[in-house]
Predict the structure of Phosphotransacetylase.
Amino acid sequence: MLAGWCARLAAHRPRVALADGHDARVVTAAAELAAHGITPVVIGTRQEVTSAASAAGVRLGPDIVTMSPCELAACAAGEVLDERLSTAPAERAAEWRADPLFLTVATVPAGLADACVAGSARPTADVLRAALRVVGTAPAASCVTSSFLMVLPGGRRLAYADCAVLPEPDREQLAEVAVATGTTFRSLTGEEPAVAMLSFSTKGSASHAGADLVRAATERVREREPGLDVDGELQFDAAFIESVGRSKAGASTVAGRANVFVFPNLAAGNIGYKITQRLAGAQAYGPILQGLAMPVNDLSRGCSSADIVTVAAISALQSSAPAMRSAEPPLSVTARTGRQ
């Protein structure tokens, strides 16, 4: 999948800011991204990045841009933070202005990068806090959500959501998860989404407030996106297996053919994607953050360099979406900093 994504991006060579330039995994990923036609902007002091490259046995070529936190603070990224943190408590604002993570995220609204990837050395909560403070939510989004792209051993591609952000989504949030994940799935795979709103009940087979919530969220999705193929509430087997879908929900256009699975809460989603990954041997790409005004994505602290490459490519694809392009600042790296 990576080769196909990079081929789609080749025409405009996107720039992706990578936090934690002291990490050998990040520098290794930067070298691979440059080879794939994506310009990495590695954030760290020259000594940190050079030491990491030496430890990884990686050569820093001319297509890899390196910027230190001090350089960022003194240019457009620092200006962005001054503006975005102006309403924060003074003590926290001072702390965040000096934080390399906040400075890395600020490269995107500052026009120094098209997307940002962070989290190899920081918890998800830190990355989300920086993204919300510095980038903010998209105008049409009611909240930030997440999804995973799951690729089964046979090549079948699915999306699972929300597996990383919203613990107990309400009706509106669950609808937001469905709409955003359908868009993400289409942009990454080129396939039309068939969205299953999951529950322990199929079409009223159980009576419970949890199933009622899923049914209400399904109706809200239909109100928001009339053209999106969505149905619920559906049990997983009814959504995934054609024969079960016919038996339990014969009139459904989604049952038995779903490729986007919206879980009722974070516990179910997180458990579900890990079971699919570990027992079915699926590849799990994500979490992919959705609903931000500009692309910022998180990494697991246990990620590999290959994981960083994949998430960076996904982030670059997000930056090429029409809504993201319209929000992109007009100034380039060269205009802001004089760097090539």
Remarks:
- The longest strand covers residues 283-290.
- The chain has two domains: 2-136+294-337, 145-285.
- Residues 2-136+294-337 form a domain with the Rossmann fold fold (CATH 3.40.50.10950).
